[in-house]
Design brief:
Elements (H helix, E strand, L loop, with lengths): L3 E7 L2 E7 L6 H17 L7 H7 L6 E2 L2 H14 L10 H7 L11 H8 L7 E4 L4 E4 L12 H15 L5 E4 L3 E5 L8 E6 L8 E7 L3 E6 L4 E4 L2 E4 L14 E8 L2 H22 L6 E6 L3 E4 L7 E3 L5 E2 L2
Parallel strand pairs: 15-17
Antiparallel strand pairs: 1-2, 2-6, 3-5, 4-5, 6-7, 7-10, 8-9, 9-16, 10-13, 11-12, 13-14, 14-15
Helix pairs in contact: 1-6, 6-7
C-alpha cells in the first residue's frame, strides 16, 4: 500500500500527516492550514491570540471569542471545575516556572503562594449567548496547552472525513489519531514510546481501531537545579511539579481531546485514583513507572503487547 506523508512544524512540535491515496494528498496541506488557524486562535506563546485577549482582560471584562476558542475553553473549564487535577487556569503557575524554556527557574515559596491564588477555575465565568469568557481576578491566565492538540487532532479528523479521506494518520507529536480502518484486519498497530529512551524506542505495541493514542511523560520537559530535577506537569494544589513514581501515561480513546484530559488525570491520580474516576469503557490507560513496571486498565489487556523485556506488566 502506498503512503503519502508530509512533515510540518507547528504547536511547538513536529507534525506528521499521512494518507494512503495519492488523490488525497491535498488533504495534508488543508489539515496544516487548519492547524495554523487554530494555533493562531489558541496559543499563549505569542502576544496575540484569542486566548491571550481573554488573559489580558482578566479582572476587567468578559471577552467574546470565536466558536472554536469558546468550545475548547468551555470544555477545559468544565473539566477543571471538577477539581480532579486538570486545570486550564494554571497559566500563572506554568509561566512562573517556565519549564522547557531557557529562563526556567525554581521559584520561591512566596512566588508560588501568590500564583496559587490565581488558578481557581471556579473564578471563570462563561456566557454561551455571547460566547464570552471572563477571568474574574486580575492576573489569571488560561493555558490550553494540556488540551489544545487533542481538540485540533479531532478537528482534522472531522475535516478529513468530510473531504473523503477514508484512511490516514494524524501525528501531532505525542498525539496520534487514526482515521478509518487499519491495514491489518481493520486494526492499527501503534507503538507506545519508552519513557527511558529518547530514540523513540517502543516498550510495547497496541492493536486498536481508529482511535487516538496520547502519551504524556515527565521526561518531555524538565529543569535541573542544584541536584534536583523538576518536570513540567504542575500540581494545582501545591504549585510544584506533581510528586509521582510515574514516568509516562498513555491514553487510548475515540477522541484525542479525551486522551489529553485523561493523560493529565492519570498523572494526578495515579492508577488506583484514575480507575475510580473512569466511567467510560472506551477509554483505556497504560501507566509506566520509574521502576519499569507497566499497569493497564482491563479494557487494554487484549490490545497491548509488551515488546521490551526490560519492562514488566503487573496486575
Amino acid at each position: 500500500m502506498s503512503e503519502f506523508t508530509k512533515t510540518y512544524h507547528a504547536l511547538g512540535t513536529e507534525i506528521k500527516l499521512t494518507v494512503f491515496e495519492e488523490g488525497q494528498v491535498p488533504a495534508l496541506d488543508k489539515a496544516y492550514d487548519l492547524i495554523q488557524y487554530c494555533e493562531d486562535l489558541l496559543t499563549v506563546n505569542r502576544t496575540k491570540s484569542e486566548i491571550m485577549s481573554i488573559n489580558y482582560a482578566s479582572g476587567k471584562a468578559a471577552v467574546s471569542v470565536s466558536k472554536i476558542s469558546y468550545d475548547l475553553v468551555k470544555e477545559a473549564v468544565e473539566v477543571s471545575q471538577k477539581n480532579q487535577g486538570f486545570n486550564a487556569a494554571i497559566g500563572p503557575l506554568v509561566k512562573l516556572w517556565h519549564i522547557g524554556f531557557s529562563d526556567a527557574e525554581v521559584p520561591s515559596d512566596k512566588e508560588i503562594e501568590s500564583r496559587l491564588k490565581l488558578i481557581n477555575p471556579r473564578r471563570i465565568i462563561l456566557n454561551d449567548k455571547d460566547r464570552s469568557v471572563f477571568l474574574l481576578d486580575e492576573g489569571m491566565e488560561l493555558d490550553l496547552g494540556g488540551i489544545a492538540k487533542g481538540y485540533i487532532a479531532d478537528a482534522i479528523k472531522k475535516l478529513w472525513k468530510e473531504s473523503g479521506v477514508d484512511q490516514g494518520i494524524i501525528d501531532l507529536g505525542g498525539n496520534v489519531l487514526l482515521v478509518g480502518p487499519g491495514v491489518h484486519d481493520g486494526n492499527w498497530s501503534v507503538g507506545v514510546q519508552s519513557p527511558f529512551d529518547t530514540r523513540s524506542d517502543y516498550l510495547g505495541i497496541l492493536k486498536i481501531p481508529d482511535y487516538s493514542v496520547v502519551t504524556s511523560g515527565i521526561y518531555e520537559r524538565f529543569l535541573n537545579k542544584k541536584g534536583h530535577t523538576y518536570h513540567h506537569i504542575m500540581d494545582p494544589k501545591t504549585g510544584y511539579p506533581v510528586q509521582t513514581d510515574l514516568m509516562g501515561v498513555t491514553v487510548v480513546s475515540p477522541k484525542s481531546i479525551d486522551g489529553e484530559i485523561w493523560s493529565s488525570l492519570g498523572f494526578y491520580n495515579n492508577y488506583d485514583g484514575t480507575i475510580k474516576l473512569l466511567n467510560d469503557n472506551k477509554i483505556g490507560l497504560i501507566f509506566v513507572y520509574k521502576n519499569r513496571t507497566v499497569r493497564l486498565t482491563d479494557n487494554l489487556q487484549d490490545k497491548f503487547k509488551l515488546t521490551d523485556n526490560s519492562f514488566s506488566l503487573v496486575e
